[in-house]
Design brief:
Shape: globular
Number of domains: 1
Radius of gyration: 17 Å
CATH superfamily: RNA polymerase sigma factor, region 2, helix turn helix motif
Low-confidence stretches: 103-112
Distance between the termini: 45 Å
Order of helices and strands: HHHHHHHH
CATH class: Mainly Alpha
CATH topology: Rna Polymerase Sigma Factor, Chain: A
Number of strands: 0
Number of helices: 8
Largest sheet: none
Strand content: under 5%
Length: 181
């Protein structure tokens, strides 16, 4: 498998679509940790994220025949992950937040070093409408461009920017006393 890790995602997906299981393993190894972080932030639960990662990559396997040659893999993968999270959210709406409106306090991998700030950001994200939260998590935490996010959620880039802007404004208001940049 020495030649696979250096391959780009689209080349690996083409190889997987042609029947190379090692290419799928390389894609999974490369992207599962980031997809898990994204799904943990969106769902608010590390346990739910683990299940959603499995569902996401199972869907990648099932949908490989629909992957378009020349398409970018990462936005396609995150679209599948987003849909898996939305489906799970519809099935378990009442389990996503605690009584005080915060996300469940679970061990979550985070780039934040201040646990208090991390809790405040998670609680603030939980207060956002789902569409704004998705745009912010994909943009800020997963590093996707607004064009990539637009492709994932099926909207125009301008609509995604508006969602993100409104979400960031709400976060600034909610976090004003907690963190001042």
């Amino acid at each position: 498998m020495s030649d696979l890790p250096d391959s780009d995602d689209e080349a690996l997906m083409a190889r997987f679509c042609a029947g190379d299981a090692r290419a799928f393993e390389a894609l999974f190894t490369r992207h599962a940790p980031a997809v898990r972080r994204y799904l943990t932030r969106v769902s608010g639960s590390a346990a739910a994220a683990d299940d959603l990662v499995q569902a996401t990559f199972f869907s990648v396997v099932k949908a490989r025949g629909r992957f378009l040659s020349g398409a970018r893999f990462k936005p396609w993968l995150y679209a599948i992950a987003t849909n898996a999270a939305r489906d799970a959210h519809r099935r378990t709406k009442s389990e996503t937040v605690t009584d005080d409106g915060a996300l469940p306090d679970e061990a979550v991998e985070s780039e934040l070093r201040d646990p208090g700030l991390e809790r405040a950001v998670r609680a603030a994200l939980a207060k956002l409408p789902e569409a704004q939260r998705e745009a912010i998590v994909l943009h800020r935490f997963e590093g996707l461009s607004f064009a990539e996010i637009a492709s994932i959620v099926g909207l125009t880039e301008s609509a995604v920017k508006v969602r993100a802007h409104r979400g960031y404004e709400t976060l600034r208001t909610v976090l004003k006393g907690v963190w001042e940049p």
